[in-house]
Amino acid sequence: xxxxxxxxxxxxxxxxxxxxxxxxxxxxxxxxxxxxxxxxxxxxxxxxxxxxxxxxxxxxxxxxxx
Length: 66
Prior knowledge:
66 residues, alpha+beta, two-stranded antiparallel sheet, 2 helices
């Protein structure tokens, strides 16, 4: 992740549908997507992505609602 300018924030082993959950930041959505596609293409893992918004940004978006 660091090689593409990103940062691994946390990695959790989980119970349930997923074995692991990683929280990471990338320099852009496009760069992060490329990284995940390359990782999945190796055939060792399957990924599911979730875009998160910081509370402050979420509040700004909500304020713009009609």
